[in-house]
Amino acid sequence: MHRYALTLILFALLVLFPSVLRAEEALTKIEPLTIATDDDATMFTVEIVETEESRARGLMFRQRLPEGRGMLFDFGRPRPVSMWMKNTYISLDMLFIRADGTIAYIAENTVPKSLDTIGISEPVLAVLELPAGTTRSKQIRAGDTVYHRLFNNAAEEDAPSP
Questions:
Q1: Taking a C-beta distance cutoff of 8 angstroms, is the pair 103, 119 a contact?
Q2: pLDDT tens digits for 95-134?
């Protein structure tokens, strides 16, 4: 009897756990964001991370991040920021963004599960995580501008169209 009950519980967890993850992601704010380069503009769909708990979790345990998607970490006020890849299974490009929306620094192709810190001493308001290789393929560089409500520059007339 015990073995049957344990098997049933394990099966239920395997079936229900992915649903719990999807429900958690569904509670996250999803918003558009545009990055303007010298030659182009690219629109992304990003999850907004605003709480200490959600910043600590970030993209941990995710198996993939689709092209055109990302996660935007809002730190509430400009400050030096350091991040790591602990329990993050996918390689990322991390864009460290000033309060005016300009990109201060890009860490490309981060190493999954690494405990090394990745950061910048210059105060930034946000970090945008994109699938590894995105900044290279879209020719995104430090100095380019990120358009989003967080940077008070997302008025439709200001943001370049993709």
A1: no
A2: 999 999 999 999 999 999 889 999 999 999 999 999 999 9
- Are 138 and 34 a contacting pair, CB within 8 Å? no
The rounded distance, in Å, linking the Cα atoms of 135 and 65 is 14
Query: DSSP letters along 104-156, please?
Result: EEEE-SPPTT----EEEEEEEEEEEEEETTHHHHTT--TT-EEESGGGT---T
Task: Kindly state the helix (H) or strand (E) to which residue 159 belongs, with its residue range.
Answer: none
Q: Which residue, 42, 69, 33, 32, is CA-closest to 137?
A: 42
Q: Model's pTM, two decimal places? A: 0.77
Q: Write the pLDDT tens digit of every residue in 51-89.
A: 566 555 655 556 787 899 998 989 999 999 998 888 878
| Domains present along the chain, CATH in parentheses | 29-151 (2.60.120.1140)
Q: How is residue 102 annotated by DSSP?
A: B
